[in-house]
Structure formats: structure tokens, C-alpha cells
Amino acid sequence: MITIEKLQEFGVDTKEGLTRCMNMENFYFKMIQMGLSDPHFESLATSLEEGNLDEAFEAAHALKGILGNLALTPIYTPLSEITEMLRAKKEADYVTMYKPVKEMRDKLLEMCKA
Questions:
Q1: Taking the C-alpha atoms of 74, 83, 66 and 51 in order, what is their torsion angle to the nearest 10 degrees?
Q2: Of 75, 77, 76, which Cα lies nearest the Cα of 103?
Q3: Residues near 14 by Cβ (< 8 Å), separated by ≥ 6?
């Protein structure tokens, strides 16, 4: 089960996230689950695997906004870096860069289900 304490242990800025959700814990938890279930995660992974950097940028940019609003810092920070590199069209191994983001997302999703 997701709790403020578990989120804090994970490195989430729960104070900021709760503030954005009117300090309503249940609402915040619901928004986290919705944000982590956003289809842009799958779109980003597919676009990166296919080398479609324009579509990958669109998905990453959308996720950056979602994760930033929820203050999910452990995912937001590396995804923000990926987003800016995609914006600049820098050559990189994006699939490898995205892997830890996906792993952290999966851990948080599991926490939401437990």
C-alpha cells in the first residue's frame, strides 16, 4: 500500500506533491497512480526503441509535466534530462538512459498496488 512515508523513502517530494493536490492524501495517491499509468510511458519506450526521436520527445515532454506536478523527483529528474537531450536532438543511447526510469516507475506502480 502506498503511503507518504514510503514515497518519502523513495525520494519523492511529498510536501510539494501534496501541496499541488490541496493536501488531500487520497487524491494525491490517486493522481500518482494515474500519472504512473499514463500511456505516454509506453509510447516513449516504443519511440525510443524505434529511434523515432520526435515522437519520443513528445511523450517525454508530456511525462515531464505529469511527473513534475506530482513531485515524483526520482523519475522526473532523469526523464527531464532525457527530454532536454531529445529537444536538442543529441545523439545518445536513449533506450539505456530510459531503463532506470522504467524500473523506478515499475517500483512505484507496484507500491501503489500493494
A1: -110
A2: 75
A3: 4, 7, 8, 28, 71
pLDDT in the model for residue 113? 83
Residue 33 C-alpha cell reads as 497512480
Helix, strand, coil abundance in the chain, percent, nearest 5: 80, 0, 20
Q: What confidence tens digit (pLDDT) does each residue in 9-48 have? A: 999 999 999 999 999 999 999 999 999 999 999 999 999 9
The span from the CA of 29 to the CA of 88, in Å, is: 34
Distance CA 106, CA 83 (A): 20
Q: What percent of the chain has pLDDT over 70?
A: 99
The DSSP 8-state label assigned to residue 59 in this structure reads H
